[in-house]
Structures are given as structure tokens and as C-alpha cells.
Amino acid sequence: MRSCPVPPTTIQTAKEAIQRTCERMVTEHLVIGSAGNVSIRLGDRIVVSAGGVPYEYLEPGDHPVVTLADGRAEGPLKPTSEMPLHLGIMREMDDVSAIVHTHSRYAAAFAAARQDVPFVCNENLGVRADRILVTKPYAAPASAELAEVAIKAFLRQPGSRAVLLANHGVVAIGETVEDACLVAAQAEWAAEVAYLARTLGGEIALSADELAWFGRNYGVTIAREIA
């Protein structure tokens, strides 16, 4: 039986996990071209996806290693342009071991409409929140402000594992990069189901009591926005 993925312990295994995740994002239609990005924490450094190159032309050794303290990058290729996003979240949220940022279609549509994704189906459970919150205000890609609004959205709903970047895409977090990629895919599924439900007259989000049952049944806490 194949074992579940565990966090990598070496730079090489982290780079291999980054490459597998980049290719997975393309295969699962979570990104196109070189869009999206991935990072894994390794102590005081992070391994990040290389920027500006379609993933099918990359190899594990292409992905750079970045020092958390000063953002200094080492590697044959430059890191993703979204380094401020990854550095900001990793510095502020000590429990985050991996980040996957995607541009999936339905989740991006909710982000463009500046609407949260409601809890409408089982796949919402992966995000562990009663809504997938949209960041506010809008922040430009590759800016330090983008990290700030993403962190604020996560802190508004402690325990959530994904947020929508306004007019942009999804940021998902996890213990492993495989976990975070699955959360990003689940966020996309939930967004698509919510959108399709609206074409049939409107979605019916689960109530607080129903969400509490979900949490008890699956042994997880469903995060709710704090005042």
C-alpha cells in the first residue's frame, strides 16, 4: 500500500515535491502556462517554484531556495514573482508548512465578483471553513500588500485553509504541499458547485447546526469568521 505524503526533509525531496505539484496543477486545470506557484517550508528556508517558465519545461533542480529572514534566493532560475505572498504568509503563520496558489476558473470567478464561496457540498470540508473568504481590499499581484490582505483573511477565520485573492485566484495552505494542492482543488470544486447551483435557482448553504454536525462527524473544526 502506498503511504500518504509526508513533509520533505531535504532540499532535493522538497524540489521534487514542488515539481510534482506544479505538474499536478496543470493536469487538474488549476492553472495554465506558468500561472500559480508553490512553496514548502524547510526550517528557516523555503523552496519555491521557479517563475515565468511553463511547468512542463521545468525540472526539480530549477526551483530556487529562499531564505525566510531576508528573501535571498539561490538557484538557476528566479523564483516566482509572488515571493512576497509566500514569504509574508510563512513569516506570519508559523503553522503553515506549504502553500499552493492557483488560478482555477470558478474560484477566480467568485474572486472577481468579490464574493465568498459558501459551504454547499462535502468538498467544502477540505477548506474547513463555513465560507471561503475573499480578500479585501484588492491588492496587486506580486505586491507585499497581497500578502497582507491574504494574512488578514486567514486571521479573520482562524483554522481556514484557503482564501480567495480578489480578482485573482486561490491561496491554499497545508501540512504538506499535497494537502495544500488538494485544498485548492476542493475550493475550486465548491466554487463550481455553488455557481452551477445558482443557475438552478440558487444555492442553499448549510446552516450552523448542519456545519456543526459536519465537524463532529468528520472530527474537524469548521472555522467561522470572527467579529
CATH topology: L-fuculose-1-phosphate Aldolase
> So what's the overall shape?
globular
Number of strand segments? 9
* Major sheet summary line: 7 strands, antiparallel
CATH architectural group: 3-Layer(aba) Sandwich
Could you give me the name of the CATH homologous superfamily? Class II aldolase/adducin N-terminal domain
Oligomer state of the chains in this structure: single chain
The largest sheet has its strands arranged as 4-3-2-1-5-9-8
**N-end to C-end Cα span:** 45 Å
| Low-pLDDT stretches | none
* Rg, Å, rounded: 17 Å
Regarding CATH, which class?
Alpha Beta
Record the SSE blueprint.
Blueprint: H1 11-27, E1 37-42, E2 45-48, E3 65-67, E4 73-74, H2 83-92, E5 98-102, H3 105-112, E6 117-118, E7 131-132, H4 144-156, E8 162-165, E9 169-174, H5 177-199, H6 208-218
Antiparallel strand pairs: 1-2, 1-5, 2-3, 3-4, 5-9, 6-7, 8-9
